[in-house]
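Data deposition worksheet. Section B asks for the primary sequence of the deposited chain exactly as it was used as input, without tags or linkers unless they were present during the calculation. Section C holds the resulting structure in token form. Section D is free text for depositor observations; keep each observation to a single sentence. Incomplete worksheets are returned to the depositor.
Section A, Depositor: J.P.
Section B:
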Amino acid sequence: MEEGRPNGHVFRDLNERSEAWQTSCVHFGWFHMERLYWTVVQLEEAKRLVKQGDVAHLRLALILLDNAVEVMMHRVIEGKLQYANMYARMVENFPEGPLDPEGEKIRRDLSLEVVPLKQQKQIRRIFRREDFIPQQGS
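Section C:
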């Protein structure tokens, strides 16, 4: 076991990434892979703390797990709201006036995917990013 790494830690230092990691970064985007890496490290740390078994370590594990879930929920919600905004732009650019039945169905289907801005604000108020994502430099 290398010094400074918990027993069973599966990740390398940032400078020692494998060729598969680098390929994934090119394919999926570096930032997305880094966020995945951070989340997995956080979950691995929580697992290590749970194995300690005492109350203090279990409480720390719970904090890490709670934060990881909130961050994942935030990412999913933001992704869905981005798609909702894309659908809203599609509806805005859709021809006005009556259409043939297929056109009306498409317009109706697109409209079902739109999340009104007022509702988006309410959702974002619940999941304010600064509440659970550490800022850089903190």
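Section D:
DSSP finds five helices and no strands in the chain.
The chain has one domain: 19-128.
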